[in-house]
Amino acid sequence: MLFHVSISAADPKNVADVMAELIGGLALPFPPVSDASWIALSDDAYRTAIEVYPLGTTLREADGDADAVGSWEGRDRYTPTHAAVGTELDMANVMAIARREGWPAKYRKRGGMFGVIELWVEGRQMLEILTPDMQAEYRATTTIDGWRNLLASMQAA
């Protein structure tokens, strides 16, 4: 179970506001890492959250009995870190949000198994947004046996 994920953004508040809209929640300040960090909190059964740190923030292990600390170290444009995030919105509404924000978005079918909307937050950070139908596809296909079958079909090809 994934309870929360963190991403970075040039405009953490705006990104947290949009993420909160997608997950049916609320964006609030998140000062534990940085005074400029925000968190999108959902009121779902899992309390799903997306922490949004200023672009260039890194997390480091703290000495002794202390939480990890955030520090600003630069401005990397892209990152391999991404998350699949469920929404109750349909594809048309997700695409409308992407257009409003000026963020690239497109529908993709992953491995012929399940659909996602690739949403490129601020044009640099990918999040896979799954509508209710896409979530059902994901749950039906992303199983250990399903993954083994995909790997076997890839080897056969």
Care to give the gist of this entry?
It is built from four helices and ten strands. The chain has 157 residues and is an alpha+beta fold.
Order of strands across the main sheet: 1-4-3-2
**What overall form do the CA principal axes indicate?**
globular
Strand content: 25-35%
By secondary-structure content and strand pairing, the structural class works out as alpha+beta
What is the gyration radius calculated from CA atoms? 17 Å
**Main sheet properties:** 4 strands, mixed
- Cα(first) to Cα(last) distance is 33 Å
Description:
The protein has four helices and ten strands; from the N terminus they run βαββββββαβββαα. It has 157 residues and is of the alpha+beta class. It has helices spanning 12-23, 91-101, 132-141, 144-156, and strands at 4-9, 25-29, 38-42, 49-54, 57-60, 69-72, 83-86, 105-110, 114-121, 125-130. A hairpin with a 3-residue loop joins strand 8 (105-110) and strand 9. Helix content is 29%, strand content 34%. Strands 1-4-3-2 form a four-stranded mixed β-sheet, with helices on one face. It has a four-stranded mixed β-sheet with strand order 7-10-9-8, covered by helices on one side. Strands 5-6 form a two-stranded antiparallel ribbon. The protein folds into two domains: 1-62 and 69-75; 78-156.
